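Quick start: read one record
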Amino acid sequence: MFLRYLSYKKSWVLLVLSLLMMINALVVLDHGISFSMLSLMYLNVLFLVIFLGFFIWRYKRETAFFYMLQALGEDMEEDWLEGQPHADHPFPDQMIVDFMISVDGLYKERLRDVKRTQVIENDYITSWIHEIKAPLTAMKITIDSNRSDPLAQKIENNWLKLHLLIDRQLYIARLPTLEKDYVVEQVKVENLLKEEIRDLASWCMEKNMNVEMEKEEEVPEIVTDKKWCRFILRQLLTNAVKYSPDEGTIRVTVGMNKNGAVMVGIHDNGPGIQKHDLPRIFEKGFTGENGRIQNSATGIGLYLAKAVATKLTITLDAESTYGKGTSMYMTFLQEDHTESIRRYML
């Protein structure tokens, strides 16, 4: 900071040195002024010491405000404007404060506009989803009443894919306000898995796939939000079905890890994930090599699963061997730690 201040005040320093040199030249060249060299040196040293003291004093006074600004910038919070340093000088400190207040007001106004637009868009999307669910429900009733018709069975699979896409869009619209839609309850995770597997049955039958569930004995109930937890399971299961080959097998395991936490594993025998792609699979929009092969990939499913899992304090992990398959793991908080979920969501 001192070097920057010195560079900022270099015109002052050059002016003072120039005046000092001019006075020295005047004393030396003007024979009407009698000065010994010792006195001249004393005058120069005294002048420079006084100037240095003045310069240091001004440095401390003028940079105190900027040091406080720097500290504020390193620990920025939403109410940063309330913690801004007090301006001791009308120029330039107070001008900077006034400018920050103006920028903050402009930023908040634009943020309000963006939020209003997002609310309108979310309301429109939610309304559209609810309206389109009516014809989808009618289609489902028609399909169920014509189970013996092979054409109805083919239509059911496409209906399921459309239903999953619309349902996911509804969850996307609700995600920013998840905390308002959060209900903590004790549930058996295997029951949630069975419900999701049953919903995906027609897709699995079309691909002639088998889903096997393995559960350890005495797995305790989990404390979570049933609806949002099912959403995470749905994303992991649909990915497993989508990328698994025809006549493949999906293995679902329910057990406890070495720390005593409930863990769900979803294992497929699909193409697997490249080692360099694995750390990025939860990033928004990332599809990887498999996504480029399957044009239907959007790179949004695992991102949403991760976002919801973070809010539910569920840990998501992935393991994969390229060419052999992928395993996705959900780890829930231990029962004695679940109170933190409630505190987190308040």
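The mean pLDDT is 82.
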